[in-house]
Amino acid sequence: MAKKKALGFGYLPKESKHHFLLVTPKSPKESVAVYERFNWDELEVQQTGIVEENLKVTLDRHKWNLIKDSLTTSFNSRLKEEDITVGRFKIGHVPVERLLGKEMVLLMWAIEDSDPQLIPTALKNWSGLSREERWWLFTMANAITGHADDKRGWRKAIRYALTENPVDDEDKSQGNMFEMLYKNVK
User: What pTM was computed for the model?
Assistant: First the structure.
């Protein structure tokens, strides 16, 4: 069977218009931004849905550089399983399939206001979650605090749970993750 040719990371516009768009400016001093979009422009430069209301997160370039390789490895591994062409993060616009986008934004929310030294812990904790757990956490946070500037409640709990809940290298289970989230949301 031939591989499905996707745009960016797994995005197939003919199957769904819903996706996330990662925008990486040319200047390394500018932050990356992620928009949730429900349309696809047939132009090289996307315009529809790149508005303030659809902005999910911005992340400084240093933090982005610390997570992008892990995201690339994780996402490409899953795309290979599905016989979909692999992707890479590059300067400009990179569409990300909606479920992968939820996972990416969840990790970005966790580290957006954290000390960069906590990013390895966040990556371990994020990796220890199943896909479904990541989707659920994104959905819960997005329902209440899904805009880039809304960093309270679930967003704060996600940051604490992923950056301050150390994972034992020998036991990557997240047994107390949801208990910790619940405690931090109150």
Answer: 0.87
